[in-house]
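Practice problem 4.
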């Protein structure tokens, strides 16, 4: 069993998928499906780096933030808070602050002007990714499909950026989102899902991408196409298609910005220094 759990594929994909599938099946008629994706993230952390938080490195800050997204889902969905512009703006601002906090030690090693520029860019990227994801993902299938593509893209970019752990985190997020999507597609009755379903994936995938830039070798511009994933998903009109077809078309739409991001990273990795 230890050898099985030590397999990177099991850690990043199989175990997170199965855990999220069980959670999504239990939560399918609630607005808390985002918790299933956060659970997949928690499991990959447990199987890889563990739960030690000292010293509080950038990776461990990501763990804290990622786990915190589950609490945000509960705090907003249990009382039935609506996705008002004010709430979305607050979430975006908190995400921006969390991104800066995560890479703070890296920023401290830069000159003041560069640190300010890098910090502003990091915060703006995560805030914009989260805001666009929340705005564009207005139903459960679209939100789960968007989460799937965000996780896959983050995993692929981190892998090309020589950041193995961030790649596993991205894949785990995608596996969790895939489990949620599967439950929504094959079930006879689909629950509301909750407008925060995409929140854990957007936050975790965005931060994992940033760490692949700040602590790996991923060029920053490779992250820019990921901002188009939520809007590509929104182009698919769910009400015109069967659930399985809407999910498939949404994933295919997300492949366009994903391919652009991965293509940029692939070419950048092969450019002579």
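Answer key:
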């Amino acid at each position: 069993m230890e050898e099985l759990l030590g397999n990177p594929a099991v850690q990043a994909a199989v175990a997170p998928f199965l855990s999220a599938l069980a959670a999504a099946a239990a939560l399918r008629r609630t607005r808390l499906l985002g918790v299933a994706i956060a659970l997949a993230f928690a499991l990959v952390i447990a199987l890889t780096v563990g739960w030690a938080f000292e010293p509080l490195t950038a990776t461990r800050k990501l763990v804290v933030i990622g786990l915190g997204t589950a609490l945000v889902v509960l705090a907003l969905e249990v009382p039935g808070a609506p996705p008002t512009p004010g709430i979305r703006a607050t979430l975006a601002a908190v995400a921006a602050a969390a991104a800066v906090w995560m890479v703070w030690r890296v920023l401290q090693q830069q000159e003041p002007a560069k640190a300010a520029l890098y910090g502003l860019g990091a915060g703006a990227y995560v805030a914009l990714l989260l805001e666009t994801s929340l705005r564009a993902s207005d139903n459960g299938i679209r939100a789960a499909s968007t989460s799937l593509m965000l996780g896959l893209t983050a995993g692929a970019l981190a892998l090309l950026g020589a950041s193995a752990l961030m790649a596993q985190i991205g894949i785990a997020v995608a596996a969790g989102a895939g489990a949620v999507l599967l439950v929504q597609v094959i079930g006879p009755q689909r629950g509301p899902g909750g407008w925060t379903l995409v929140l854990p994936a957007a936050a975790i995938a965005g931060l994992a991408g940033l760490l692949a830039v700040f602590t790996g070798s991923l060029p920053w511009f490779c992250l820019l196409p990921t901002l188009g994933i939520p809007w590509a998903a929104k182009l698919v009109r769910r009400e015109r298609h069967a659930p399985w077809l809407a999910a498939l078309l949404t994933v295919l739409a997300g492949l366009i910005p994903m391919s652009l991001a991965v293509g940029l990273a692939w070419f950048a990795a092969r450019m002579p220094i």
